């Protein structure tokens, strides 16, 4: 049987998406369910099985040779389990074995959602052609993933690239993760909005206090809004520079809602990067916006499945 | 011709060491010169050539199949050049081509000194058997290197693992590198001593104001000395936790003069690591002292040469 497709699952706190994807990253079939995030683990799994059922029921399914899962973290690829923060019914949940069962025994590859998005940007997006890249999602949280030596670097448990929870301010504000001064604690959308409000910024008549509203105010010249984005940019720059100094990357790709803020973010970010990326071998680092859209998680999970298929074929 | 040996060079600001090393990491022949660090580039190169000459003049030389160089940084493995901070006569100096010439055309591998020490600890020392490790030297400066997926991760230019110059305090004191709040700026030996002196610690009758003297005072219960080591430990912990969170490592090996301080450093370091290494996948991380002695640079350069030889043989 010729298997020229892979199956992909993108599992988040809001939705569970599935797809059959070809070797060029094209989505040939898709399925989706809302995540019953507050239900028990078996109920959440049923939503995964229903999503998968729409794929296995298709005549295209016979052409699928492997299945990739990008899941909200933490994940543990070494045990095949997941414990997504926003899905309390799943703690050390054996997702890989359950999905393998529902997928008729296909080889299954599990990676964290930041790693999945990185795989997508490297395969089809802004990191294409770069052998050493950091890809980030700056949104409600701050996530990421790494490409090193031309390969996705998922790490033994599939969690590598968690740049949102490195501390760039060791005496800084407590982060929900337990540490202090994490990149996410300073640069996530909710923290950009919180800081602006704390420093006197007030929303317009629509009452919108999101980071996008702060970005609008910053574009209009509001100094408190500008300063909140500058502080976020400084934390992101310190984190990106730390990553480059540790592993050598030549590009950082930034996506997610905050990443869409444009010059309000990228202007101060590029400036701050010069302040922290000082050693000769990190000075050529560039920062660019992400290119992949909402399908990034699916396309990245498909990339991981393809890589697994290739590895299996080589053995 | 059977080549069961490799040649190794360890080039620092104080000495240039050379050796012939076998496949078990044993040094069969060694040579050494003082580094004429303040002389012009050609004079420094002559000291390298003299060191090499003692190796090439030996009957053992015919058994050497490759040569590894571990050099004070920055290095640029992609161009084969070095610009060691402490050797001003070498700026973008074409060390690889000059050494290859002096070594009769042997394949030459160039890595930074932190990467070399990491290669040695992974091959023969405290990181043996660990597929994902950070090795550090905490001394006059703070350097390091990474093993990822069982392989030395040197990065495209040979500089990966520069943990001393990641910022863990983005508003902190200016570092000579140009950034602020770098791990080295807080945790190096001279900074441990400076902080103790600034806070009122005074040396004994011998006038010794080194970090080793501060460590002695800390062991004797001097609270200012204890606090200076605690602050260094906090910065090291934040840097190590950041590294683990970014790339997934399960062991951090610490060597160098400050690394020899023992419990005065390792006690607060292990405690502080718990404060910063919070995500589930980094909680199993352990910190241990280095095992390799002063030959680490040579043994690591030899390891890099052996890896290059294996790669060449596989092609």
From TrEMBL, chains A, B:
PROSITE patterns in alphabetical order: ROK
InterPro entries per record: ATPase_NBD, ROK, ROK_cs
Family that this chain belongs to: Belongs to the ROK (NagC/XylR) family.
Protein name (database record): ROK family protein
UniProt lineage: Bacteria, Bacillati, Actinomycetota, Actinomycetes, Kitasatosporales
């Amino acid at each position: 049987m010729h298997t020229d497709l892979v199956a992909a699952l993108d599992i988040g706190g809001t939705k569970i998406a599935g797809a059959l994807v070809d070797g060029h990253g094209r989505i040939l079939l898709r399925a989706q369910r809302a995540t019953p995030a507050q239900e028990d683990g078996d109920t959440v799994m049923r939503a995964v099985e229903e999503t998968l059922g729409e794929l296995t029921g298709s005549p295209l399914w016979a052409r699928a040779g492997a299945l990739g899962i990008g899941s909200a973290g933490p994940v543990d690829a070494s045990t095949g389990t997941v414990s997504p923060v926003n899905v309390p019914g799943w703690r050390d949940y054996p997702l890989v074995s359950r999905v393998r069962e529902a997928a008729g025994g296909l080889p299954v590859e599990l990676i964290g959602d930041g790693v999945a998005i990185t795989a997508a940007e490297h395969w089809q997006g802004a990191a294409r052609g770069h052998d050493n890249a950091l890809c980030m999602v700056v949104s409600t949280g701050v996530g990421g993933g790494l490409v090193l030596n031309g390969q996705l670097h998922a790490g033994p448990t599939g969690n590598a690239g968690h740049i949102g929870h490195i501390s760039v301010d060791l005496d800084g504000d407590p982060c929900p993760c337990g540490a202090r001064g994490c990149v996410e604690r300073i640069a996530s959308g909710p923290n950009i909005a919180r800081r602006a409000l704390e420093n006197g910024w007030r929303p317009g008549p629509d009452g919108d206090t999101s980071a996008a509203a702060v970005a609008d105010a910053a574009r209009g010249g509001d100094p408190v809004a500008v300063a909140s984005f500058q502080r976020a940019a400084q934390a992101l720059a310190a984190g990106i520079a730390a990553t480059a100094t540790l592993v050598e990357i030549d590009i950082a790709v930034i996506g997610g809602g905050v990443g869409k803020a444009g010059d309000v973010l990228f202007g101060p970010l590029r400036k701050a990067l010069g302040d922290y990326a000082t050693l000769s071998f990190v000075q050529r680092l560039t920062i660019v916006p992400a290119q992949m859209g909402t399908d990034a998680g699916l396309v990245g999970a498909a990339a991981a499945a393809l890589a697994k298929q290739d590895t299996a074929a080589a053995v």
